[in-house]
Specification:
The protein is α+β, with helices and mostly antiparallel strands. It has eight helices and seven strands. Helices cover 60% and strands 15% of the residues. It has a five-stranded mixed β-sheet. β4 and β5 form a beta hairpin. The longest helix is centred in the first third of the chain and has 72 residues.
Length: 301
Amino acid sequence: MGACGIVSNILRFYLPYSNRYIYVLLLCLTFSLLVNALGKSILNLSLNDPPFKEYIPFLANTYWIRLGIDFLMICCMAVICVLWYTQEEEQENRQRKNDAEKLSRDAELYKLRQQLQPHFLFNSLNSISALIVSNPEQARNMIHQLSDFLRTTLRKEEEQWVKMEEELQSLELYLEIEKVRFGHRLSTSIVKDERSGQMLIPPMLLQPVVENAIKFGLYDTTEDVTICISVSTENDMLKVTVQNPFDPETASPRHGTGFGLNSVKRRLYLLFARTDLVETSSMDHVFTTTINIPKHESDHH
């Protein structure tokens, strides 16, 4: 027991590499020799009295058997310790790896969110600059709307998840700013069911999708355009569909997979490790983007 305890403590603080397990066998053999020698010395002293002297030859004849038993017992303890401490070390390594990956994911998610703000802000400031001379009153309204939008998004900056109804409120603020930019040419339709409003979604996930729809629906045409946004729940999956018309002669829907949609795909992959959550299709001059968001464990019902 003493030898097994010492071996266990040695392996606890010094675990050899897999190609150096011979050292463990040598350690077990060394302790087996010491234990057997110590046991033999104690028994020789204890059995020296006449009634027990007949046991001394038997003790000498069974030396190798007792040495083998000692070696097997200590080796069994060593194997158990190696397996136990190796498993503990692997768990610690996995935990460290998971923590590092989580930090990396969080940093990339934060970077993706930060990239959205300047992109939208520059467009809005350019529109305000153009309106200051031609329509000062409209420019002031747009500044107020932009202020409300930025205030709302800044409050969400540290949040990982928000309710769908809050995300739609931010999206409506964004759309109001875009309607000032494009005037009567832009109209929107938002349809949602009651249950979807309480489900959770990563903040600012829909804005780049809608911005992509506005870009490829309005930039290459002079006609009025309606952006349709539909939100529903299917099998505990939050489904968001964004549709915009496009002119096949001046725009190609396949070009609509730039930074906006790529950032959404990347964010969802980092959160759910899935690449099938964003789908795009085009039919009858209508480009459709569908986002499927799995139910989050903190969703309210």
